[in-house]
Amino acid sequence: MNTNAAMIFVRDKGRMCNNILQFGHVYAWAREHGRTAVSMRFAYKYPYFHICHTRWHWFATYVFAKFAAKLGLLPVAAFHSFNGNPEAQHLLETRKTLVVEGWEVRYYDLFLKYKQEIVSLFAFDPDIVAKVRPMMDVKALKLGVHVRRGDYKTWQGGRFFYSDAQYAEVIRRFVALHPDSKVEVFVCGNDPNLMSIKEAVGADITLHIPNGNPAEDLFMLSECDYIIGAPSTFSLVASMYHDRPLAWIMSPSEDSHFDKFDNLFRNII
Prior knowledge:
Layout: E1 7-11, H1 16-32, E2 36-39, H2 59-70, E3 76-78, H3 86-94, E4 98-101, H4 108-113, H5 115-121, H6 126-136, E5 141-147, H7 164-176, E6 183-189, H8 195-201, E7 206-208, H9 214-222, E8 226-229, H10 233-242, E9 246-248, H11 261-264
Parallel strand pairs: 1-2, 1-4, 3-4, 5-6, 5-8, 6-7, 8-9
Helix pairs in contact: 1-10, 6-9, 7-8, 9-10
């Protein structure tokens, strides 16, 4: 691989939507400064998006950058601190080719400047769209609900780990606020037993629980008119595609407060 070009290899160990946001920040900075950013994650993992078919996004790129960094042939700018990363930023500004890692790499204003390009890079592959879109072709107000369990049982002491009854309460409250609309609810999440939420909600509200892969679930949420879920980058990225209103459930007993991606992404927990 030719490393004479100014190339930034971006890596992280987070989940799919963490990777999308992290790369988006670095891409925006690189775009502003005439550099090329390559996602190591999307060079081999999560093969659902347009970016996976663009130049340099090959498995060989991932292998090259991984071992070049490990052997010290490429410097690594590590953005791991909430309190600023001056050393990492200096490396980014002074080294032509390097690896960037870490969740705390943030360029909010540049991200918004290039947001439509980022959305285009992460456009869904046609097979994802073809599978999910027919389900979304309903004449109803579509509410997307992201159920985050799994690791949320222990994250922040289980603060955002909600029961079926609590999700059902949130859904029913939303439906009650729209008495003049037919509401259909589209549910996804990382719990294999999501059908139990349907029982908790009751038969008078239509729920769709397709159990898709991560990209199918993300596309489904992005096509909804409103999105609700526990605080998560998954629902956040879903809202990014079409600027859908998103409400993070901070307390399931309180009304949902909707906001847009451009504000919420600055306040990721």
